[in-house]
Write a structure and sequence with these properties.
By secondary structure, the protein is of the alpha+beta class. The chain has one domain (9-119): 3-Layer(aba) Sandwich (Bit1), CATH 3.40.1490. It contains 4 helices and 5 strands, in the order βααβαββαβ. The chain has helices at 23-40, 43-52, 64-76, 107-114, and strands at residues 9-16, 56-61, 81-85, 97-106, 118-119. It has a 5-stranded mixed sheet, sandwiched between helices.
């Protein structure tokens, strides 16, 4: 059996669980969060995360307030963030905040911020 890799870096993608969205819509919003948060990360962190295999974790938050609190904590810690606002072309009202991307960043730093969130 192969040994499980030790990921020192990861990205956390957090969807609002209090909004009714189809599975596909959630996936699209989390993809927006992943790309946008990646773009805000520093070059060295991006490379280390990429070279490790780009670990991502999909999580859920129970409210808009919780997303904003997580974003504030991550911003204060110097972790790249991206808050995603929907254009309202399909399932939800325009301007609805749907998701949050954190990182890539050190796994241990993200765990301090997101460790209590449930997996999607």
């Amino acid at each position: 059996m192969r040994e499980e890799p030790d990921f020192k870096f990861k990205q956390c993608l957090i969807i609002r669980n209090d909004i009714k969205m189809s599975c596909g819509k959630k996936c699209a919003q989390l993809a927006h969060a992943a790309v946008s948060s990646y773009e805000h990360a520093d070059k060295i962190t991006k490379k280390k995360w990429f070279d490790e295999g780009m670990k991502k974790v999909a999580l859920k938050a129970n409210s808009l307030r919780e997303l904003y609190e997580l974003k504030t904590i991550a911003d204060t810690a110097g972790i790249s963030t991206a808050l995603i606002t929907d254009a309202g072309m399909t399932e939800i009202e325009p301007g609805t905040v749907t998701a949050l991307g954190l990182g890539p960043a050190k796994s241990e730093d993200l765990d301090k911020i997101t460790g209590t969130l449930a997996l999607l």
